[in-house]
Amino acid sequence: MALYEHVFLARQDLAQAQVDALAEIATKIVEENEGKVTKVETWGLRSLAYKIAKNRKAHYVMLNIDAPGNVIAELERQTQINEDIIRYMTVKVDELEGGPSVMMRKQERSERGDRGPRGDRGDRGPREDRGDRGPRRDRDETAGE
């Protein structure tokens, strides 16, 4: 069987319980057709780069699927019919990621406030000690020029 990542975007006005129900429906479709869903990740309500069907935000959900190709065709057909899903994408992968996806690791990092190597800049010294600029002029002097 082939491995797939299926991501769908649900309308912004849905409650989280409704989004979870959509993920359950997708899981049920896959399992009824002799496939299996190995992981379901809800990435939450995120802003879109541009409006899609009058939505500025969408609930993102990712499913890792181990199934034959005809199962994915049926899943995509059912997804197209559903009015609550505004976009979807299925990608065939060589192997599924173990542990949390990149999006989940990114969320954890932003929640912790981890800024990486630039987080603590230390003492950079007084500002007037910079020799690359001349002395500052008052506004009255520059207004007449």
Plain-language structure description:
The structure is a single chain. The chain is an alpha+beta fold. Helices cover 32% and strands 34% of the residues. It contains four helices and four strands. It has helices spanning 16-32, 69-81, 102-112, 139-143; strands spanning 2-11, 36-52, 55-67, 85-93. Strands 2-3-1-4 form a four-stranded antiparallel β-sheet, with helices on both faces. Strand 2 and strand 3 form a beta hairpin. The mean pLDDT is 85. Residues 97-145 are annotated as: Disordered. Keywords: Ribonucleoprotein, Ribosomal protein, RNA-binding, rRNA-binding. One of its GO terms (cellular component) is ribosome. It comes from Sphingobium xenophagum. Residues 105-145 have a biased composition (Basic and acidic residues).
Concise synopsis of the structure shown:
Keywords: Ribonucleoprotein, Ribosomal protein, RNA-binding, rRNA-binding. The chain has 145 residues and is of the alpha+beta class.
| Residue share in helix | 25-40%
**Percent of residues in beta strands:** 25-35%
- Unreliable spans are none
Radius of gyration (CA) equals 25 Å
Element layout with pairings:
Layout (H helix, E strand, L loop, with lengths): L1 E10 L4 H17 L3 E17 L2 E13 L1 H13 L3 E9 L8 H11 L26 H5 L2
Antiparallel strand pairs: 1-3, 1-4, 2-3
Q: Which key features would you list for this structure?
A:
alpha+beta; ribonucleoprotein; RNA-binding; Small ribosomal subunit protein bS6; rRNA-binding; Transl_elong_EF1B/ribsomal_bS6
